[in-house]
Amino acid sequence: MTLLSRHFAKVLIGTVVLAASVPAAIAQSSTAVSEATTKQMQKAQRKADRKEARIKKNAELGALEKKGYQPGGEQQDYPNNVQDAERKVQEHKAAAPRSISAP
Predict the structure, then answer these.
(1) Which residues form the domain of 47?
(2) What pLDDT does 48 receive?
(3) How far is CA 54 from CA 32, 50, 51, 60, 61, in A?
């Protein structure tokens, strides 16, 4: 074998090895991308759940405050004052007219 044919053989073998490894590398990178996308979607879902819970909590607290509960107020009457406010909110909800949807 001449020097030129040895060099050509090395280049040819290197090209074949590289070509054989490319699909595996692409498959690995696509798996990594899908895992990253899944993690991002899970993180976004947890964030949305936390935001929804915070909005609900703040709405409930706002309704209690409208009915007389003061979170920073006297703590000696704590269970009674929050229970009174909760009772008032429930009474208000029960007294509110319910909308009836037309058929």
Answers:
(1) 23-54
(2) 97
(3) 33, 6, 5, 10, 10
Contact 71, 61 (CB under 8 A): yes
Residues 6+ apart with CB under 8 A from 82: 64, 69
Within a domain: residue 95? Answer: no
Residue with tokens 């406010």: 85
pTM: 0.54
- What is the number of structural domains in the chain? 1
Look up residue 25 and give its amino acid. Answer: A
Segments in the chain below pLDDT 50: none
Separation of alpha carbons 91 and 51, rounded Å = 28
